[in-house]
Every structure is written in C-alpha cells, then in structure tokens.
Design the sequence.
C-alpha cells in the first residue's frame, strides 16, 4: 500500500480480516494501480481506485500519483463485467473514495478531500496535505447529489472510511482527531433528532497507538476493522469485535487466508455470510488489489429439526380371536426380555436392533406356551438424519462439545461434516467444540455430504447431502464462583 505525502491521496496503511472455510480469489479487474475498499452494491461492488481516470481533470501529488475515484463493477453469474466510474457527477480533482450505503442504496457516505470543490488551478498551489472528511450523497433520478457534509469534519484532522450500520442509526469512521489513543482511531456517531451526534471514541479495547481503520458493522453485530496493533500477523490485519454485556470484547484476529504478513483491509461480508470482499497487497507488498471470498460450505436446503426417537411401537396382530377361557391369555414377547399379556400392546425399545417378536397363547396356570399365534423378526432402525449430540441448554462463554456419531445416513456414504452454530461461526469435522459468547436461542445446523462441491460446477447434486438442525439455548452462568 502506498504511503506518500500528498494533497489528495490517503496516507495511512490498509488492512483486512477473515474466517476459516472460505475460498479466496483475486478479482480479474485489478490494475497496476491500487484498488481497495470494496462495498457490496446491488448486483456488484463499488470500490476505490487510483488508476488514471478520463472522467475529470485531476490534481496529482509530488510523486505524480493520481487521486482515488469510485468505480462500479457488475457480477454476471461467475463473471465480472468491466469497471465503470461510479457517480461521476460528484467527482472532483481530488479524491472520492471508501463508500458506504444505506440498506436501500439511496444514501451514500464517502471520504472526500475537504477542498475538493475548489478549482484545479488553486489546488495546484497547495503545498500542505489537504485533510479528509466524510460527506453524504443522495440518489435522485439516477444521479448522485452531495447533500450533506458530516458536521464534525475539521481542517485540523482527517476523518475517513465511513461505515453506516444496517439500520442507518450509527456511523463508524476512522479519525486522527485529538483525544485518541494514537494514529487513526475508530469512532461512532449516533443519528438522533435528525442529525448526527458528537462522535464517541470506541475506547482502548478497540483502539491502540497504531492505526485502526476501515470499520464495517455486520447485521450480526460484529464490527470488523483493520489494525497494525493487537499483535497483528504483519502489516494491517483484519479483526472483529462485538458488544457483550455492554462492552466491546477483545478483538479477534481473523486467521489465514484472510490475514497475511502484509496489509489486509477493507473487509465486508454479505448478510448471509456466504460471500465477501477485502483488499490486500499480499502479492507484491506494493499495489493493493481486491479479493473475493466465498464460503466453501455447501448449500443445504430444507434443513429440518432433528427428531429424537423413542423407538416405540404398537403391536396388534390381525386374525386373533377371543379366547373363551380364563386359563389361556395372549402374551407378546418383544424379544428384548420384556413381555405383555394383552392382544394390543405398546412397547418402547431401548435402541436399534433385530428383535424376535412373538405373540403366544399362554397357559396362565403353568406359564407354558399353549401355542404360537405369530412370530416375526422386527428390525428397529433409527431415522435417517444427521444427528446433533449436544446439551439442549448451555452456559455462555463455556466450551461445548458437539458430536455427529449418532447420525444415520443410508442413501450415501458420509464423508464431510459441516457445522453452522447460528451465531455467525462455522466449522467442519465429525466432532467439534464451540463457545457461545452471548446468551439467546440459537439454531445449530449439521450438514453431511458425500463429496465436496466442485466450485466450477454449474449444477450441484443435492441428493448426496443431508441436514438437520437443533435448538440450543444459551444462558448466563448463575453459579457464584466467589
């Protein structure tokens, strides 16, 4: 990532975050310049690039670097279209970058140089670094109009990387404003009474003496951001945190392949957690490129609640007749050591097996079998389903064992086991462990497949997979440990 003294370009490092069980691909439209800050927009992404633009005349810095502009690229099935300038009507001679959209895509927040509206001839006279601020734009008649400047922009510091919450009530951003912990810190502002309230620093759990930048708040409440602090693996790393019991938890470093020894940053992920994007200079250590990641988890349809079986049966042999004597009685022998003297019986087996069931006529005086009315072998089999072995109720912040050993799959040979814990975490394996970090009701899913999906396959065979889910209630630990 570039670090230069400029009048229009970003002068901070960049970063990224990640999670296991995803495939990562460098996107084909990256250039020899820098592409960064992807954000999901309708059927594609909007991103920032400093590649030379022919849309407007621009100012360059002392190293002849070009400013950042916004671009849109559409995803058509598995292929990407050609990037086109996004909202050129608000482009200036300086930088417009790092967009964030409202959930209906009608409002956009961007990073922009504070003097972006000035003439190019005046900007070329500037010798100092021009600060950045956040601006709001509104879509009207398929064009974007700059509608509001964030009220806390200031010539004395940078305010960059806006990230609007899904409900539109919070705006996160990075800033060098005074009172922070060093470098760029992450702040949030609340929208109340028709205006943005005074920004609040997220505090020392999130912010360090290094730079914390590129925030992104997911629908599940997790805040993703990038930092060189928090014992990063090297360069900017992607981290996440979330509020538990009213406090931000210690940031969690995303594992490889999301984070590398170089800069990884600008992480966003879809609402259903299956695809996302980030930027990194992992290939060369210089130019930033955009990467896409997609979940390697198969798509499990019709995932139904698992059934806890009791192996109970009703026995009623047709053709029996009334025995007109008190000495003789019908008796069912269930083949597991249990018997009942009745014509219609109900019995529950302790487990699967092959049982020799017989209906006998018994001489009650001697206990001997007078004659056998019927006999057959009963095969007691468990229902075919993935089966989740775990407690129904667990304690928050305590490790829980999840097993699949009671799963029964007859239609194919099980090979892969996929777990979705319902709290945004996924993993693989026959038997796994997981810790829930918040209370509530979660639906844990276990999916089983015969083979791994071919990522290039146009048609996926859904017959070689099965899925079940189980409700797990996570409660507070009420035991006094003092």
Sequence:
């Amino acid at each position: 990532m570039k670090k230069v003294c400029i009048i229009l370009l970003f002068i901070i490092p960049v970063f990224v975050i990640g999670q296991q069980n995803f495939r990562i691909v460098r996107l084909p439209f990256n250039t020899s310049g820098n592409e960064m800050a992807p954000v999901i927009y309708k059927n594609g992404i909007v991103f920032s690039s400093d590649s030379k633009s022919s849309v407007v005349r621009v100012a360059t810095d002392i190293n002849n670097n070009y400013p950042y502009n916004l671009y849109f690229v559409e995803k058509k099935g598995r292929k990407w279209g050609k990037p086109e300038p996004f909202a050129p009507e608000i482009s200036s001679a300086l930088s417009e970058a790092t967009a964030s959209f409202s959930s209906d895509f009608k409002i956009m927040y961007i990073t922009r140089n504070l003097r972006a509206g000035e003439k190019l001839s005046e900007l070329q006279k500037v010798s100092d670094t021009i600060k950045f601020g956040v601006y709001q734009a509104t879509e009207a008649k398929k064009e974007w109009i700059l509608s509001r400047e964030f009220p806390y922009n200031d010539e004395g510091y940078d305010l960059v990387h806006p990230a609007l919450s899904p409900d539109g009530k919070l705006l996160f951003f990075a800033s060098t404003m005074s009172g922070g912990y060093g470098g760029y810190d992450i702040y949030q502002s609340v929208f109340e009474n028709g205006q943005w309230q005074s920004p609040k620093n997220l505090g020392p759990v999130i912010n360090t003496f290094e730079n914390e930048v590129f925030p992104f708040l997911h629908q599940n409440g997790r805040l993703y951001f990038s930092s060189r602090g928090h014992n990063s693996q090297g360069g900017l790393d992607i981290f996440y945190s979330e509020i538990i019991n009213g406090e931000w938890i210690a940031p969690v470093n995303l594992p490889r392949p999301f984070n590398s020894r170089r800069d990884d940053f600008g992480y966003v992920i879809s609402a259903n957690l299956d695809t996302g994007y980030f930027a990194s200079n992992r290939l060369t250590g210089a130019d930033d490129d955009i990467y896409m990641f997609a979940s390697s988890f198969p798509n499990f349809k019709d995932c139904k609640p698992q059934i806890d079986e009791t192996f109970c049966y009703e026995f009623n042999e047709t053709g029996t007749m009334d025995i007109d004597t008190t000495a003789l009685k019908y008796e069912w022998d269930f083949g597991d050591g249990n018997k009942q003297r009745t014509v219609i019986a109900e019995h529950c087996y302790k487990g699967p097996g092959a049982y020799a069931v017989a209906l006998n006529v018994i001489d009650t005086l001697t206990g001997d079998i007078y004659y056998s009315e019927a006999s057959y072998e009963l095969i007691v089999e468990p229902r075919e389903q993935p089966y989740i072995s775990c407690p129904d109720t667990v304690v928050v912040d305590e490790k829980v064992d999840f097993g699949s050993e009671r799963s029964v799959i007859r239609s194919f040979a099980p090979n892969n086991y996929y777990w979705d814990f319902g709290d945004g975490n996924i993993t693989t394996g026959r038997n796994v462990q997981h810790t829930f970090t918040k209370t509530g009701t979660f639906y844990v899913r276990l999916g089983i497949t015969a083979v791994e999906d071919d990522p290039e396959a146009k048609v996926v065979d859904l017959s070689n997979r099965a899925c079940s889910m189980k409700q797990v209630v996570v409660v507070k630990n009420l035991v006094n440990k003092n």
